[in-house]
Amino acid sequence: MLLQENAMLGPYRVTGRIGEGGMGAVYRATDTRLGRNVAIKVLTAVTLSDKERLQRFEQEARATGMLNHPNLLTIYDVGNTEGTPFLVSELLEGETLRDRLDRGAIPPRKAVDIALQVAHGLAAAHEKGIVHRDLKPENIYITKEGRVKILDFGIAKLSPTVGKDGPTFQMAATEPGIVLGTVGYMSPEQVRGELVDRRSDIFAFGAILYEMLSGSRAFKRDSSIETLSAILKEEPQELIELNPNVPPPLEKLVRRCLEKDRDQRFQSARDLAFNLETLSTYSSRACPTRRRKRHRRRHCPPPSPPPPPPRRPPPPPARPP
């Protein structure tokens, strides 16, 4: 469905077109009841005729609609107009992480800040039993204020349960041999078509952080098949070779995220976030000290030489006999 300006979707008035993805078009709109600006994702005609894509759209609404976290896209509403389902979310102003990476590597301190926010968002989703399975720079958004948002839970796999903390979802098994995700950010278990859990998102997180720090993808070959083979069998180039400014503890953290064996990775996004916070705190404390030292060297005069030692007084005159 192609919407024109001023078209109405329920109480929402379309004011412009933002863009189009694989499943649908996204429009800027105004909620006429509350007077706030929103974004509306509307499925394309092709998607409507594809049962699998339609199911993903409905799954995204279910997955993100139950999440409430500052580092996850907020869903306001879902609806259906003339047989066309749509999803209403907060309107974001800024750019995707992919847009930012197109301009080159990100300084380590800023990369840690972005990564920390992503880790907090993942932790919130994982604690509700939701695994993203398609985490990549295109699905990470940086607002003009510096807030990081995880987008697009369209292929998250979940099944509803009810626990003491209210409704949550648990991962449901993918059919054997079915591979979902984006080449270059898939975990080894995803490549093999195995059942995935939250540690698969942590692998993708490591690939993204590697790319932020180096400006290069961790696993990129001439073809998709070669890239998938590299994920299974090869190690990425040492970060320090691509960016000497990466602190060794940060490189070690990235390496742990990218372990082939999921049991060797961080076992939760919460644990990952804790380690990132430790690095961030260390960086914040260390950097001002270095700046102060440079400031003193640049603006303060060199210290004066120490004064000469005092002279000994002359001996008293001899007494007359």
Descriptive overview:
Helix 4 (108-126) runs antiparallel to helix 6 (198-214), helix 4 (108-126) runs antiparallel to helix 10 (269-299) and helix 6 (198-214) packs antiparallel against helix 9. The chain folds into two domains: 10-90, Phosphorylase Kinase, domain 1; 94-281, Transferase(Phosphotransferase), domain 1 (Orthogonal Bundle), CATH 1.10.510.10. The protein has helices at 45-48, 51-65, 97-101, 108-126, 188-191, 198-214, 224-233, 239-242, 248-257, 269-299; strands at residues 8-9, 12-20, 24-31, 36-43, 75-81, 84-90, 94-96, 140-143, 148-150, 159-163, 166-170. With 321 residues, the chain is an alpha+beta fold. It has a six-stranded antiparallel beta sheet with strand order 1-2-3-4-6-5. It has a three-stranded antiparallel beta sheet with strand order 7-8-9. Mean pLDDT is 82; it is low at 158-179 and 286-301. The protein is built from ten helices and eleven strands.
Summary tags:
3-stranded antiparallel sheet, Phosphorylase Kinase, domain 1, 2 domains, 6-stranded antiparallel sheet, 321 residues, alpha+beta, Transferase(Phosphotransferase), domain 1
How are the elements arranged and paired?
Layout: E1 8-9, E2 12-20, E3 24-31, E4 36-43, H1 45-48, H2 51-65, E5 75-81, E6 84-90, E7 94-96, H3 97-101, H4 108-126, E8 140-143, E9 148-150, E10 159-163, E11 166-170, H5 188-191, H6 198-214, H7 224-233, H8 239-242, H9 248-257, H10 269-299
Antiparallel strand pairs: 1-2, 2-3, 3-4, 4-6, 5-6, 7-8, 8-9, 10-11
